[in-house]
Each structure stands twice: as structure tokens, then as C-alpha cells.
């Protein structure tokens, strides 16, 4: 009776043990996240960000994979792998243009794409594994859009254009306008002024008028300034000579 009583009391303990053993442990999960879209300009270096969270401690078994799918669709192609160290692609369009910027201990699995170009447009997927975390959302995608670089005009370029193109053009234009307006004035000055070097002796401008006036002086003019009596005698003699000439002709 005592033995049967002990067995009856052990039943609850056995049932509890079986329940604990049969119940499944909660499964660990990992979550990966990244920006849905990233925009870049041609020639720039762009960081493709990827972060993850895991309920398990990060160990050397943790790994990261980056894959690329072009806009024309098609299967994704893995071009970057990390497992204790980085293994970038050694061929294809990403050769020599990838840089690891991750930090697994902080939950960062980002990479940098150098010298982005239009051919890099497409969808990039980041996949992280950290056993025993094997469930959850281990993949996240980012769409990269690269646009052409627009050349920018700097202030120094504008200053150079003004200094070496516009200013000489303005000076030439002013010189042409001056040449168009000055000939009229020069012609007027040439007609009213002669250089003393070009004037021959006896033709000085100041004496020319006087000479012409002297050539037109008559005998009457010569005696106008003399004494009136002399002028009367001159007129009488001149009249007598005129009458004698008239009589001789008759």
C-alpha cells in the first residue's frame, strides 16, 4: 500500500517533466532592414546601408551576402560575401569598386559602391545569417537610382568669362563707335587749322587776308589818308591828263 501510494504521488511530477520536454522551444529569429530607395549622382560614392538584429550572439558563423538584379529583371547575382572577412567580386561591373563598411558586433552589414554609374541602376539585396537564428526576415532590398551629373557653373568660371571675353568685346565696340563719330570732327578741324610746319613762308593764315586786302588797294585808297590839298592837286592833274588824251584822239 505504501509503495502504491508513492507511485500515485509521482504521477504529477512525471507529467510535468513530459510536458516540459514535449513543448518546443521558441525559435530564434533575425531581422534585416535597409532603405527601400537610394538616389545617387553619376561619379559619386554611395553607401548601401544594411542593418540586422539577432537574438543570438554574433559569432564567426555569421555571414553577409549582397546580390544585384538589373532593371531589366533576371536572376539576382551575388557580388559581395562576408564571413569573418570581406570577399568582394573580382570580376564583372563591380570589380575594384566595393568597400566593406560593416560592423557585425553593432549589427551593421553595409557596403560602399565607388564611382556610381548609370549601369549600376537596379535592385540590391542584403542577406544576413547568424546561426542558430534561421527564421524571420533575413533579406532586405534596396532600389538604387543613379542620375547623370549636371555640370555646375561656378562663380570663378563666370568671372573668367567676363574678364577674357566680355570685357575685350566691350572695349572693341566702344573703339568702333569712337571711330564712327570722330571723322566728322577731325574733318572740320582740318579745314579750319593748318599746322605751322605745313604752311609755306608768306602764306601764314594771319597774313593771307592782309595780303589780299593790299592787292585790292586803289590809288584813291592811297590818297584817302593823305592831306586833302595834295589829293586836290592829284585830282586836277589827273583831269588835265584825261582831257589831253581825249583831244589827241579827236
Automatic annotation (TrEMBL):
Q: What UniProt keywords apply to this chain's record, in alphabetical order?
A: Disulfide bond, Glycoprotein, Immunoglobulin domain, Membrane, Signal, Transmembrane, Transmembrane helix
Name one matching Pfam family: V-set
- Superkingdom classification of source: Eukaryota
Where the record annotates domain Ig-like, the positions are 26-145
Entry keyword Signal: yes
Q: Where are the transmembrane segments?
A: 158-184
List the subcellular locations: Membrane
- Give the principal location in a single coarse category: membrane
The record's listing under InterPro entries reads:
Ig-like_dom, Ig-like_dom_sf, Ig-like_fold, Ig_sub, Ig_V-set, Myelin_P0-rel
- What is the membrane topology listed in the Swiss-Prot or TrEMBL record? Single-pass type I membrane protein
What is the residue range of the signal peptide feature? Answer: 1-29
Q: Name one GO cellular component term.
A: membrane
Protein name, UniProt field? Ig-like domain-containing protein
User: Which source organism does the UniProt entry give?
Assistant: Umbra pygmaea (Eastern mudminnow)
Instruction: State the taxonomy lineage.
Output: Eukaryota, Metazoa, Chordata, Craniata, Vertebrata
